[in-house]
Amino acid sequence: MKPQASVFLRIFILSAVVIAFEVLLSRISSLIFTYNYAFLIVSLAILGLGIGGIFSFYKWKSRSEQVTDRLTNELSRYNTFFYLLIVFFIVFVNLVPFITTPVLFLLFSFLPFLFAGIVLSKTLQVFSSESFKLYAFDLFGAAAGAMLALWMIDLLGGTNAILSLGLLGVFSSFLYKPGSLTLFGYFKYSKIFLPSCIILVILLAVNLTTEFLGEITVRKNPAKDLHVMLINDSLNARIVESRWSAFGRVDLVSYSDDDSVMFMFIDGASGTPMFKFNGDIDNARGNLKFLNMVFSGTFPFYFLEEKEKDNMLIIGPGGGREIIIGLTNGVKEITGVEINRDFVGIVNDYSEYNGGLYTDFGNVSIITGEGRSYLRGVEEDYDIILITQPFTKSSRSLEGYALTENYLLTLESVKDYFNHLTEEGRLIVVLHTTSEAMRFISTSLTAMEEMGIDNRDAMDHIYTVGRKINPVIVLKKSAFTMEEAQKRYFGMMYLKLNTKSSYIPKVYRQFTTNSNKDAEYPENGIINPDLTAVSEGTLTLKKFIKKSTFSIRPSTDDRPFFFKNTHGLPKTITPLLIITAVINFVVIGAAMLHGRPHKRVNNLLVLALLLGIGFMLIEISLFQKLTLFMGFPILSLAVVLSSLLVGMGMGSYFGGRFFPGRNSKRLAIFSFIIFAVAFGLYYLLSYIIYNLMSTPIVFKALLSSSILIPLGFLLGVPFPTVIRLAKENGTEKFIS
Predict the structure, then answer these.
(1) pTM for this one?
(2) Which CATH number, 3.40.50.150, 3.40.50.720, 3.40.50.300, 1.10.10.60, labels domain 278-547?
């Protein structure tokens, strides 16, 4: 059956809104809960679309495949329900607190995709003869939706972006009007369309001007710093302002009873302080209390000579604390590279409060970008490279960011830092826990070994001190002398920054005693015996890594999960995998049992399953590699999704012209080509990443798209070919 032009347009709009809602929902779930829920949202979306397809199959399986006014009206209702449900979802999330309990939130997230799946699957099934063109518009719409979501959340914020999606979708419902009706006649015919449009226009207009729905609140979760701060009555904290972007929501929080500091949070976590400062560096220690407190991040600065303070690079300056540390310790030139532009914007806008740290100091330069990309694009070497707790965390729980990719702490990144240090320069890294410190040391030792410095000599370039929380690791370009090591040892002892994980080179022969190695604050300042053994050559790095109770093997660009410190899968992921496996087993098993009399159906089912798995594996690996290349995870996601989907749309639209009437041959040939191209891309992308990382972001986006669109073209051919095979075999009624 030949579809009308309106069928292609409504598929385009529906797919665009589905993907845009999925992206926005992922951002909102990361704000309310933790980032793990963003992954769950993607799974729920796919599950909802799939169950919608199953519902569609059983609802209409006994009916004629002709497009009647009754069928069109039913699809119109389901289409409108989808758009209204996404509006109800955001209204309830903003106004009804108990909706943000995980079960209810996930249920309300699931329902819209169910109705979208009903409409999409029935449309594809009725017009299966035009599967290539329909699938093309489906993918073009999805590509547009991916970009639309990023633009809308920047422009409108989370709440208004979803309200706008609902309004756009409801307006598109007129595309379902029966051909015999005029648009005005359809208004009378449909009892849902016109009232829904009027209500949504008023709702969006009023919320844009008055924000009566308020901001989406962070759920009552002890893992969210923002929530903990706001419920603490003794702090009298309040949100001063909020800013949305594709990167997340930034909240600026102040204390009513203490105006000496404000905090910026990203998605309710990752708090970074912004101190009240008058810009007077000479008297800063008298005005800023934190400068007189014991903080491991300031420890390395106490021992620097003038020739070691010419310039400093700070990766992730946040609210400016590290800028103040550098200025008060006499660093002559400071460059900060901050990936979150809203952090930079807020510090700039509050320059009167913070002393104009980012705007009024001639020796301070702030760059908005990603640290490694910036470093690879400059030839300058630095006396100090400072990184403090470097990750974009939407959860303060260690389990919450165990699988968060972080390319600032990998083996390859250590080489980048080392190569941009002056001869007297050093890398200073402040982490959260001692297990992270041990992992960074093992990563650094491996990197230096690959640069020609064996482990025993490399240990003379490293020291680590600090309590169990916030240890600091220093990696020096040249080896520490005995005099330098002793100064740091006695400084560590004086400030009580010595724990059983502390290590300072060359002094271990004087101060190491194994009798008290388990003491938290040993009287004579124990130096970690395992690190000591590595420095003496009596313990190999491999055995040191194996001996640890935590996973401290080196993190690499191919395995950038630095914060995953447990062996095996994180325990938060295991239940999700089990649930997913059970659901897939039930759904696939039921489908195969239903299709038992049809061997061809089961073969097509397995074929479609394998195509889906293959596509996801390619997409995920491309996203991971391009995140490093692009520098911004959300930009990488947008480029990968939009480029692949545009390419797949083109492949789906034109794919039927290859080997016409020979569907099996087309499927086999294109599957082999996809394998060969994907295999070659693995090596091509590795070359591109490390040789072109420093190029402008626009060039990187265009280059990535030029690579991904042709791959997408190839990926767009197999699925509609399977639908053609189903029709060819007389089993198109099983399409859902």
Answers:
(1) 0.81
(2) 3.40.50.150
